[in-house]
Write a structure and sequence with these properties.
Layout (H helix, E strand, L loop, with lengths): L2 H6 L3 H6 L4 E3 L5 E2 L2 E2 L3 E4 L2 E13 L2 E10 L6 H6 L4 E7 L3 E2 H14 L3 H18 L4 E2 L4 E7 L3 E6 L2 E2 L9 H10 L6 H7 L13
Antiparallel strand pairs: 1-5, 2-3, 4-5, 5-6, 6-7, 7-10, 8-9, 10-11, 11-12
Length: 207
């Protein structure tokens, strides 16, 4: 049963390199020449830009990513438990194979799930892989979005076109979201950027 899943993890080192190290910029609609609007609509619901950042591989900018939610929040728990549609929106800055994104997500789901939770999500991961197999490669400037729509499921979009039917497993989107917002993110900096976290000012000990 796990042969397809194990195949997805082949070349894992390359997928992990896409996420480290990261230079980020929180709550900014303009990143590396990419403009993210302050808001967008999903299924008629207005979502706001919660935060955004840039992922690097070595010194090369790989992609930008933004998180859209019904209302702003600064904690992962608040985002994960928030009702309504949500969207992770990526703009590619370098060409990359879609299976690299699949491996990235699969690894993130595994790293932020219990063993029981992960094995329960394998059917959804398999459906994701089947959809990705028809896309092959992303080019610079391509837009890749992962969207959650209540009562429909998780939908993947490439350049605003759905990659396939919604994946209806109710826990799948949050499992994907924990790739970046979970307790074991590949980059704390990118997690902070998506949550628009701002470190408290350093107090002057002499005051």
């Amino acid at each position: 049963m796990l042969s397809k899943y194990l195949k997805m993890l082949t070349g894992l080192g390359l997928a992990l390199s896409l996420l480290a190290p990261v230079v980020v910029q929180a709550q900014n609609a303009d990143l590396a020449g990419v403009h993210y609007p302050d808001s967008l609509k999903v299924e008629g619901t207005s979502l706001v830009l919660n935060g955004s950042g840039i992922s690097y591989r070595a010194v090369a900018k790989i992609y930008t990513v933004a998180l859209y939610v019904p209302k702003k929040a600064t904690t992962a728990d608040a985002i994960l438990t928030m009702a309504g549609p949500k969207q992770l929106r990526f703009v590619m800055l370098q060409g990359m194979r879609i299976d690299e994104i699949g491996k990235l997500i699969t690894t993130g789901v595994e790293n932020n799930s219990t063993r029981t939770q992960f094995y329960g999500l394998i059917p959804a991961i398999r459906k994701m892989g089947e959809q990705f197999s028809r896309i092959k490669r992303m080019s610079p400037g391509d837009v890749f979005a992962i969207e959650w729509v209540p009562n429909r499921g998780t939908i993947f979009f490439v350049n605003n076109q759905p990659a396939g039917l919604p994946i209806q497993e109710p826990d799948f989107f949050n499992a994907i979201l924990r790739t970046w917002l979970g307790k074991n993110p590949p980059s704390q900096g990118l997690k902070d950027a998506l949550l628009d976290y701002q470190a408290p000012p350093v107090l002057n000990a002499l005051d």
